[in-house]
């Protein structure tokens, strides 16, 4: 019914679409594994069971809660409803200070303790992450 040329074009187009579809699927699948979601201290308090996945905790650094010993820093992240203690080993960003917004990436040990592997404070002192702003407005 169709000529050989039409069948070859059809097969070529189907092959290209299959390759594009497979590529998009693989890209989205790899991104899914690397996505780390932001949570507030209140959300962590309400979690029934903790898994071993890396998460991000965001909020404000509580005033008078920062203590440093050699290369380790401990502080409290608060959303003004609940708090979580954070311990981080390494250098903190220059913009990290008490009373400012911060996002810590790492692992939850229990409802009150968070072991951070990365501190994200790469913004100026007027910026507040949208999630933190929304959590503060709920208060």
Describe this structure as you would to a colleague.
The chain has 139 residues and is α+β, with helices and mostly antiparallel strands. It folds into 2 domains: 1-35; 38-138, OB fold (Dihydrolipoamide Acetyltransferase, E2P). Helix content is 32%, strand content 32%. The chain has helices spanning 4-34, 41-45, 130-138; strands at 38-39, 55-61, 67-69, 72-78, 83-89, 101-110, 113-120. It is elongated.
Rounded Rg: 23 Å
Give the structural class. Answer: alpha+beta
The CATH C-level name of the largest domain is: Mainly Beta
N to C succession of SSEs = HEHEEEEEEH
Tally of separate domains: 2
Q: How much β-strand is present in the residues?
A: 25-35%
CATH fold-type name of the largest domain: OB fold (Dihydrolipoamide Acetyltransferase, E2P)
Can you say what the CATH homologous superfamily of the largest domain is? Nucleic acid-binding proteins
CATH architecture assignment of the largest domain: Beta Barrel
As a percent range, the share of helical residues equals 25-40%
Task: Based on Cα principal axes, name the global outline.
Answer: elongated
- Give the end-to-end Cα distance, rounded to a whole number of Å: 70 Å
Helix segment count?
Answer: 3
List the strand order in the largest sheet: 2-4-5-7-6
Which regions have little confidence, pLDDT < 50, spanning 5+ residues? none
Fold topology:
Elements: H1 4-34, E1 38-39, H2 41-45, E2 55-61, E3 67-69, E4 72-78, E5 83-89, E6 101-110, E7 113-120, H3 130-138
Give structural attributes.
32% helix, five-stranded mixed beta barrel, alpha+beta, OB fold (Dihydrolipoamide Acetyltransferase, E2P), single chain, elongated, 139 residues
